[in-house]
Design goal:
Layout lengths: L6 E5 L1 H9 L3 E4 L3 H13 L4 E5 H6 L1 H8 L5 E5 L8 H14 L8
């Protein structure tokens, strides 16, 4: 087993194929229902880190909430090839606000 065996990437094929070249486990999906079952399946397989494109993560908000309280897997939204929609950073900001009780990262 290599260090990359515990890292997975979920998203539309054109957004994630580059990760395959880096040796990561890539799971191409086309819509939310397929992504939900894929996420649950690979989380059960014991992946420690799952990167998921922001467009897919946005469709799976309720499912992702289930994993927020668990140590593993760490599910991390990443931008698509078109760029960031802000979903990933918004989630990080919300989580930091909950833990700390104040917006210390991005004062507005």
């Amino acid at each position: 087993m290599t260090k990359y065996d515990s890292i997975a990437v979920i998203g539309k094929s054109h957004d994630i194929l580059g990760f395959k070249a880096a040796g990561l486990n890539v799971f191409a999906v086309s819509e939310g229902k397929e992504a939900r079952s894929t996420l649950m399946r690979i989380a059960d397989r014991g992946f420690a880190v799952i990167f998921i494109t922001e467009d897919i993560a946005d469709e799976l908000k309720e499912t992702l909430q289930r994993y927020k309280t668990k140590t593993y897997p760490a599910i991390i939204p990443i931008p698509t090839a078109k760029g960031s929609s802000g979903v990933g950073i918004k989630g990080i900001m919300q989580d930091a606000d909950k833990v700390i009780g104040a917006d210390i990262l991005f004062r507005q």
